[in-house]
Each structure stands twice: as structure tokens, then as C-alpha cells.
Amino acid sequence: SNDGYKLWLQYYKIDNPQSWQIDKLTQYKVNGSSPTLDIIQGEIQRASQGFFSPKPEGSSKNPKLLISKISDLDQKGFLLDSHKIKELGPDGFAIQELGDKQNDKTTLITANTDIGLLYGTFHLLQMIQRNTPVPKEGVFQSPKIQHRVLNHWDNLDRTVERGYSGFSIWNWHRLPRHIDQQYHDYARANASIGINGTVLTNVNANSLVLTPEYLEKVKALADVFRPYGIKVYLTARFSSPIEIGKLSTADPLNGEVQNWWKDKAKEVYEYIPDFGGFVVKADSEGQPGPHNYGRTQADGANMLADALKPFGGIVMWRAFVYSENTPDDRHKQAYNEFKPLDGLFRDNVIVQVKNGAIDFQPREPFHPMFGAMPKTPLMMEFQITQEYLGHDTHMAFLAPMYEEVLREDTFANGKGSEVSKVIDGSLHSNSITAMAGVANIGTDRNWTGHHFHQANWFAYGRLAWNPNESSEKIADEWLRLTFTNDDDFVTPIRKIMLGSREMVVNYMTPLGLHHIMARSHHYGPGPWVTGGSRADWTSTYYHQASEQGIGFDRTSSGSNALAQYAKELQTNWGNLNSIPEEYLLWFHHVPWDHQLKNGDTLWEGLAKHYQKGVDEARSNIKTWESIKNKIDGERFAHTLSFMKIQAEEAQWWRDACLLYFGQFSKMPLPQGVEQPL
Ligand code: GCW
């Protein structure tokens, strides 16, 4: 079956549909005409065909659903005052019920733009599928973040860096002549959760994508995505002027180089008039950048920004910069490099910062750059693909992780300066805002490998739209849209989802441990990983285990990375008694017999966390087996087999880590923790 392919847009049959559900989708009218409005019509037809069977006849004479831009309404914005209309902005929408009698109601979806209407339509369809009527007071939504983009780490040969769901869905060979239906389905899925940008190529970039041969293909994709409100972006390899421009340098202060980029930008916009802009990884992990010429990150970013400026493009300049020879705690390097450049970036540059200072670990404290650069817009980069969280086979619902970071207080302007407010621009009044999610999408029939990893794509979109959305609501809605409204399914499985990321933290890296995965592919345990080309690509660098204790001292007696955070956090996290235990070994090196809050020694606590993760992975299997008859057999079996892998590997993690660390602690395992095999 292709249920997996349909993601959260299943449009499965609604049992005993009510007239409020049927009428809207059979008696509707869409004002005006445009490719986006055609998509809206098509989506409603698709949904009503799925929801109702046999499909009821309808008419548009007395519409029960009217979809219209505010400017196309007879009485302009007759329901909304001008203030509300302005608040909706370019992407927002309103859904309101007109008339008082239950059966005589007309639902109105309005927006300032066609794209707003598309978002409103998807919203209403999702409410109908979830049997949730439009509330009396209506629904008013507009995104808190302007650029809600996916980053594909997709190479031109269709391999995907850190991709675990098959190959890249961009079939460069067949483009531009063949347009696969999958491109439309990809765009539909993104539009249905408010994603409005896609970076097609890997940040470890290939400059060939900027040549005419590829721009033609990129244009073909951009043409598909446009009516769904999705802009295309590309990664720009910093040395492109040399590689495809035949210049001898890529120095950002060189006039020839600057002109080359200006011409290149002009050329790109001839193909794609609404091109979003460039994403750049420079001076990081072997990528070329301004450092090669003794220039700063601002010099590099500004050169590209100047080239894009006349066409309205932006530069997303990544802050994932750390030295080739690890002179200092890697945690500190991006901050040290970027903080002095605050205020020096052009107004069409936004600095793209990973959620934490190391690298997409199962848990990281928020990146200290958030809140530290009041004069520079910063965007969040989350990883949706699970490089460090068990790749395709381990279920980890990531919304709680995203939420945790977004809710952290930076104290930049005193209490209440959450990361989310840095990102949505409200804390420092930034005029440009964005969020990026490193995609987990590939050619697998269900797009994401694990069926439940579709939820992470979904959750990312929802949190980019509204960083204050709750994980619980997101999980609930995703389950209902993707599987069934049956509470006997939704309630237990929602619980599994919501606990799954903490479960992974428990069996991989509890109490603030990090980066102890196997070398380079990062799948499975590897706390013993040491040696090799650089210290900060080993595990021993991060856990520092010895007979004396374990953990990375980032206080003033150690690397003092802690000093990059606000005073309030330095006090709180710097103190062994007040630091939340989930960050303990991130910031402190502590002895094995250090006493935890519950009285256990550190060693006992560590062992119990590992065991807890294993226990949960096992009990999830039982819960899943108990809902067997609630969903289709194929997705049931697929998920079950992955859950079994996860439980086995949770045990692998526990055994490996406890055996390895036990050599140092030399302490017995506490009661309740199984002896490693
Ligand atoms: O997470 C690390 C990955 C690299 C990746 C890099 C980055 C695209 O291991 O594969 O490269 O980060 O974010 O640039």
C-alpha cells in the first residue's frame, strides 16, 4: 500500500461524517483563478474523495465554504478590521463561520494572498480529518518566522550526506525534462505545514550546481514549487569563482571575484526570478571560505549579500565554523569567531546557528550565540535527520528536543529572553527571521525510513510556523492525520512518541554526555573512539573519563565555555548543586562517587539511566503490539520491526557504555541494572 507515501495527508475515510464536514467540501467556492487556487481546488477534491464514500454530490451555488482573498471579497474584509488584516501579513489566514444556525453556516477562509489561502485550506482540511469543528471565535494564524526552510544535504550524484532514507529525491539526470509527481507531493506536504523554502543542495557544496546545465534543472523544480509558496535556495561553494569561473582567487575583497558573484546572481535570477538566496558553509570541515584569504566571515557573507541584494535574495551564512587544529574547546569557537562581528553583516544576511555548540547531539544546551549578537539576525538550524539519534531505525520524536531549546532562557535582555524570541526577531527587533531543518527525506517509499520520522518533518514545520507550539499538540495532530482518530490508538502511542527522545538520551548519552557515538558514521556506541586526525572527532575528548571521574569541565577551572552564557546561567550551571542534571557532564568533570539529587552516586545514576532507556524501548514494543488492529498491517509491521531493532540496540548502547566506563569507575552495577552480556 502507499499509505506511508501519503504522510499526514492521508485523507482517510471519516466514519459517520457530519453535515458540517460534508457540506464544506461539497458546496464550496474559490474566488478568482491562479495556479495556487487550482491547487486548493484539487486538494479539496482529493480530500473529499478520501473522507466521504460514496462521494456526495455538491454544488457551488450556495457555498458552505468560501475561499477568497480579502481583496476579492465583495465587502472588503467585511469580517476583519484593518488591523487584523495587517496582522495576517503575507502568509497568515483566517477561518470564520458566518451565520448563526448550525446548518446555515458558511465558512470563510480569507487571507491577503493565495498562499495564505492555501495554508488556510490545509488547516481546515486537517480540522475536518480530526473531527474538530471551527471554533466560534474562528481561527487566525500567521507564522512567527518568515523563512521556514528545509536544508537538503543532497549531493548532485543523489547520495545524501547523513541521509538514511534512500537517495535524493532530486533526479538531476531526468530534470528538467521529466517532472516527477513526487516533486508536487513534496511541495504539497511542505505547504500543508507552512514550509516555504527549500535548499536543494548539500552545504558541503558542489559549485557545478551554479552552472547553466544545473540552473535549468533548478528552474524546473522552482517552477513546480512556486504555486505552493516554496522558494528555492542553493548552497554556494565559496571557491566557485575559481572552479567554474576560471578566476585565480575567491578572495571576497577582490573586485573581480565580487563582480563574478554579481553576474552569477543575475544569471540565477534570470532562471528563477524569485530565487531565495544562498546558504553557505565556509571555513568548516574542509570547506573553502574567507579564512583562506585572511578575511572574516562578515567579509565573505557581505560579498554574497551584495550580489543578491538587487534581486531581493538573502544569505544564510552558517556559524558552524571551527578550527582545523582544535586549539580550544570546540564548544567555544563559533561564538569567539562571530561575536566580534556583531553588527558588521549586511541587512540581507542572517547567520544560521545550530541549536547547540557541538553538533546535533541527542541533548545539548542551547548555542551560546543565541542572545549574544543583538545586532545580527540569527536563525535556528535544527537537524531533522537523525545523524546522532539512531539514523533511520530508532524512533525519536524530536519536537520535545526542539521545544526544549526554543524555551531556554538566554537572559540576553533579562529574564524572559527565550531562544524562541531571538529566532522570531522579537527580542532584538530583527527585520529578517528564519529557521532551517536538515531534511530526513529520501527515496524510501515512506519518504523518511521510519514511519514515525515523518512526524519530525511535520513537527519541524509546525515549530517553524509557531515556535511556541507544544510537542504534545503536534504529536496528537500528527497521529490523527497519519493513522486514525481512535483514542485507543492515539493516547498510548502519543505517550511513546513524547517519551522517545528522552529514552534515546537515556540509552545513548545520559546526564550531559555527548559525542560518544561510533567514529564518522555516528551510528551506535563508540565511547572508546580516540586517536585519528583530530581530537574533537573522538569520544574521549568529550567524555574525559578516567579513574578520577567523567565529564567535560567547561567551568572556569576548565575551558570556561560557560562564560559565553549570561551571568544567570553561569551561576546556575556553574554550580554542581544547581545545574540541571541533564547538563551535568556537559559542563563538569565529576568523580564517580559524586552524589546525585536522588542520593545515587554518579555511577549508579548513569547505569540506571542506561537501563531506563532499555526498559522503555522494550516496553514500547508491547504497547505497539497492543494497538495491532487499529491501523493497517503494513505500517504496523514496519514500525514493529524497527522498534525491535531499537530495543536491541538500546541494549547494545547500555552494555557498551557501561562496560567501557566501568573500567574507570571500577564500581559494581546497582540493583535493577542488567549485567552486560
Ligand atoms: O553534523 C556534522 C556532520 C557533517 C555535516 C556537518 C555540517 C554537512 O557530521 O556531515 O556536513 O555537521 O553541519 O556542516
TrEMBL record:
Domain Glycosyl hydrolase family 67 C-terminal: 448-673
Domain Glycosyl hydrolase family 67 catalytic: 128-447
Reactions the enzyme catalyzes: Hydrolysis of (1->2)-alpha-D-(4-O-methyl)glucuronosyl links in the main chain of hardwood xylans
A Pfam family recorded for this sequence: Glyco_hydro_67M
Keywords from the UniProt entry: Carbohydrate metabolism, Glycosidase, Hydrolase, Polysaccharide degradation, Xylan degradation
GO MF: hydrolase activity
Top enzyme class: hydrolase
Alpha glucuronidase N-terminal domain boundaries: 7-124
Entry's family note: Belongs to the glycosyl hydrolase 67 family.
Assembly and interaction partners: Homodimer.
Protein name: Xylan alpha-1,2-glucuronidase
Organism: Belliella marina
Organism lineage: Bacteria, Pseudomonadati, Bacteroidota, Cytophagia, Cytophagales
